[in-house]
C-alpha cells in the first residue's frame, strides 16, 4: 500500500531542462550572433542532456564552432578554458530565467503538480528529492506556490552522492518514516528512475522531450510505468495507489 509519493523537481514539477537548453542556446547565439539559430542549439541539447556541464559545453562548442569566440571571453570571466567561458555566459542567462516568476510559472508541469495536489487530498505523505541546491529549490517552490505541499524536502545539499545513487530517496523515506516499498516516486529521467528503483521504491516516469529517447531506448523501467502523455499520469498512478 502506498503511503507516500516522492517527486523529483527538475523536469518533473517544472521544465527546467527546457530552460537549460534555452540558456545554452542563447549563450551560443551571444557568441556567434551573426549566423546561429537558437532553436538548432535547443534541438542539439537533446543529444547531450544528462551529461556533465563540462561535457555539454564541449559538445555544443564543437558542434556549433564556438571555441574561438568563447576563447576571446576567457579573461572576462577569469577562466582557463573556452568551455568555462561558455558556461559562465550560459549560467548568467539561466539565473535570470530561473528567478523570473512568469517564466517559471509558464514552464510548470500542471499534470504532475495535479498529482501532488491529489496525493495531499488523499492524505498521503509527500516528499521532494531533487539534485538542485537548497536555495534554488526554495525559490522555485515559493514561486510555484508549492512550499507547503511537502512534508519533507531533500536537496543536493543534504546528500553526499547524487542520483542515480539511491541516497536521496532513502533519506526522504527515513524522514517521512515510511518503508521504501510504500513509496511511489515520480521522475522524468533515467538517473532518477535508477535511484528510485535502487531504493526499492515503486516509480512512474513522466518523460519529456529531453528524456523520452533515453527512457525508451533503455530497459531501466517496465514500459507500463512510462508516461509520455502527462494527462494520463493520474490514471496510471491510481493503478499503483488504489
Tell me the CATH architecture of the largest domain: 3-Layer(aba) Sandwich
Provide the residue-averaged pLDDT. 95
Classify the beta-strand content into a percent band: 5-15%
Major β-sheet profile: 6 strands, parallel
How are the strands ordered across the major sheet?
A: 3-2-1-4-5-6
What are the secondary-structure elements, in order, as H or E? EHHHHHHHHEHEHEHEHEH
Tertiary shape: elongated
Query: How many beta strands in the DSSP annotation?
Result: 6
Q: What class would the helix/strand composition place it in?
A: alpha/beta
| Gap from first CA to last CA | 8 Å
Find the CATH superfamily of the largest domain: HAD superfamily/HAD-like
Instruction: Say what the CATH topology of the largest domain is.
Output: Rossmann fold
User: What is the helical fraction, as a range of percent?
Assistant: 40-55%
Specify the number of helices: 13
Low-confidence stretches are none
Whole-number total of structural domains: 2
Under CATH at level 1, the class of the largest domain stands as Alpha Beta
Radius of gyration of CA atoms, rounded to a whole number: 19 Å
Kindly summarize this structure in a few lines.
The chain has 242 residues and is an alpha/beta fold. The protein is built from 13 helices and six strands. The longest helix is centred in the middle third of the chain and has 17 residues, at 82-98.
Amino acid at each position: 500500500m502506498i503511503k507516500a509519493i516522492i517527486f523529483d523537481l527538475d523536469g518533473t514539477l517544472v521544465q527546467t531542462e527546457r530552460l537549460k537548453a534555452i540558456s545554452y542556446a542563447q549563450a551560443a547565439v551571444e557568441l556567434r550572433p551573426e549566423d546561429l539559430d537558437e532553436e538548432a542549439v535547443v534541438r542539439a541539447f537533446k543529444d547531450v542532456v544528462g551529461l556533465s556541464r563540462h561535457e555539454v559545453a564541449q559538445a555544443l562548442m564543437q558542434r556549433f564552432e564556438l571555441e574561438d569566440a568563447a576563447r576571446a571571453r576567457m579573461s572576462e570571466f577569469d577562466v582557463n578554458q573556452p568551455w568555462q567561458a561558455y558556461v559562465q555566459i550560459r549560467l548568467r542567462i539561466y539565473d535570470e530565467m530561473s528567478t523570473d516568476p512568469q517564466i517559471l510559472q509558464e514552464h510548470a508541469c500542471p499534470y504532475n503538480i495535479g498529482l501532488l495536489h491529489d496525493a495531499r487530498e488523499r492524505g498521503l505523505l509527500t516528499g521532494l528529492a531533487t539534485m538542485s541546491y537548497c536555495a534554488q529549490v526554495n525559490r522555485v517552490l515559493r514561486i510555484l506556490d508549492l512550499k507547503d505541499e511537502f512534508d519533507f524536502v531533500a536537496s543536493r545539499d543534504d546528500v553526499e552522492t547524487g542520483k542515480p545513487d539511491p541516497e536521496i530517496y532513502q533519506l526522504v523515506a527515513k524522514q517521512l518514516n515510511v518503508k521504501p516499498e510504500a513509496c511511489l516516486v515520480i521522475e522524468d529521467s533515467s538517473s532518477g528512475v535508477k535511484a528510485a528503483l535502487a531504493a526499492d521504491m515503486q516509480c512512474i516516469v513522466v518523460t519529456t522531450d529531453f528524456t523520452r529517447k533515453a527512457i525508451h531506448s533503455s530497459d531501466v523501467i517496465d514500459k507500463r510505468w512510462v508516461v509520455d502523455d502527462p494527462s494520463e499520469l493520474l490514471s496510471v498512478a491510481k493503478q499503483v495507489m488504489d
